[in-house]
């Protein structure tokens, strides 16, 4: 398989995520678009790790001696991105659900941040 295919798919996914963030009004759909962007980054991280390893495998000498402990570093970075995405979804959904309980809407355009609009009880 050509290495450009995952890069193009990752770029397309990231572009769809950016479109979703900029054009959607529903906060839950914006969170889904952000997740799509993070998954595109994961795909590109893993693809870059695999393609660079296969490209640098033929370099002779001590300039590129990779110990086994650093093997798969793209996958490790992708794992960190997955953990951050899970935390983002947890906090984001908690904020959106609390806002929905108070206002009965999740449209981003209607969110007001000033203190005088506070609802008591």
Care to describe what's here?
The chain is an all-alpha fold and 121 residues long. Helix content is 67%, strand content 0%. Its EC number is 7.1.1.-.
Tally of DSSP helical segments: 3
* Shape estimate: elongated
Number of domains: 1
The helix/strand class is mainly alpha
The CATH class name reads Mainly Alpha
- Helix-strand pattern, N to C? HHH
Strand content: under 5%
Portion of residues within helices:
55-70%
The count of β-strands is: 0
Instruction: Enter the CATH topology name.
Output: Helix Hairpins
Distance between the termini: 60 Å
Mean pLDDT: 82
* Uncertain stretches: none
CATH architectural designation: Orthogonal Bundle
Family: Belongs to the complex I subunit 4L family.
InterPro entries: NADH_UbQ_OxRdtase_chain4L/K (IPR001133), NUOK/Mnh_C1-like (IPR039428)
Membrane topology: Multi-pass membrane protein
Subunit structure: NDH-1 is composed of 14 different subunits. Subunits NuoA, H, J, K, L, M, N constitute the membrane sector of the complex.
Helices and strands in order, then pairings?
Blueprint (H helix, E strand, L loop, with lengths): L3 H20 L3 H30 L16 H31 L18
Helix pairs in contact: 1-2, 2-3
């Amino acid at each position: 398989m050509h290495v450009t295919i995952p890069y193009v798919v990752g770029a397309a996914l990231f572009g769809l995520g950016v479109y979703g963030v900029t054009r959607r009004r529903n906060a839950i759909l914006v969170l889904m678009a952000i997740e799509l962007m993070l998954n595109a980054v994961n795909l590109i991280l893993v693809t870059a790790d695999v393609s660079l390893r296969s490209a640098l495998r033929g370099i002779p000498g001590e300039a590129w001696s990779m110990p086994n402990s650093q093997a798969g570093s793209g996958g490790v970075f992708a794992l960190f991105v997955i953990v951050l995405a899970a935390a983002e979804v947890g906090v984001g959904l908690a904020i959106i659900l609390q806002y929905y309980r108070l206002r009965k809407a999740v449209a981003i355009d209607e969110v007001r941040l000033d203190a005088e609009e506070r609802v008591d009880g």
